[in-house]
Amino acid sequence: MSSQEFSTHSTAAADRDLIFVVIERHRELSAHYDAALSVSAKLDGGAGFDAADEISSQRNDALAEHANVLIRSAPTTIAGVIALTRYVGSLREWELPDDDAWYGVFLEMVADAIDGIARAQRLGRDGG
Q1: What residues contact residue 70 under an 8 Å CB cut-off, 6+ apart?
Q2: Helix, strand, or coil here: 93?
Q3: Source organism's superkingdom (predicted)?
Q4: Coil, strand or helix: which one is 18?
Q5: Is 19 in contact with 73 (CB distance < 8 Å)?
Q6: DSSP notation for 42-55
Q7: What is the mean pLDDT of each run of 10 residues along the chain (128 residues)?
Q8: Could you tell me how far CA 108 lies from the centroid of its own chain?
Q9: For residue 112, how far is the Cα from the chain centroid?
Q10: What radius of gyration, in Å, describes the C-alpha atoms of the chain?
Q11: DSSP H helical ranges for the chain
């Protein structure tokens, strides 16, 4: 699926599941941080480097904060669960939370989300 197709799909799916908005925001913050690092890498020091390094640091902080939001945000649809797990599985180490135990929090949240979706489907099917 191309990024254009995913973006269009994400917009439509976000109407049903806000996890697509959380994923898209993480993707944006990752791109902003990566761009800032690219600028820093081209500089050899001095005031320009210091300014670029400060921007990189701020963008890294924003990305790290949102990475924690990402792994704690519960999808509300099966499509959201699939998108979130595929997205998190595709991330590079620097895009993930700094805490080495993040995956336990993530897996518990995903299991709870799937359980909640299944429960809602049973209630809808049973008319309860």
Answers
A1: 22, 23, 26, 84, 88
A2: helix
A3: Bacteria
A4: coil
A5: yes
A6: T--SHHHHHHHHHH
A7: 52 76 98 94 86 94 98 97 98 95 97 96 78
A8: 16
A9: 18
A10: 18
A11: 3-14, 19-41, 46-72, 78-90, 102-126
How far apart CA 16 and CA 18 sit, in angstroms, is: 7
CA distances (Å), 9 to each of 2, 54, 79, in order?
10, 35, 10
**Residue 82 token pair:** 């699939």
Token output for 20: 């697509």
Distances from the Cα of 123 to the Cα of 58, 80, 116, 126, angstroms: 45, 20, 11, 5
Give residue 126's pLDDT. Answer: 75
Q: What is the distance between the alpha carbons of residues 32 and 52, in angstroms, rounded to a whole number?
A: 12
Q: 59 near 29, Cβ under 8 Å?
A: yes
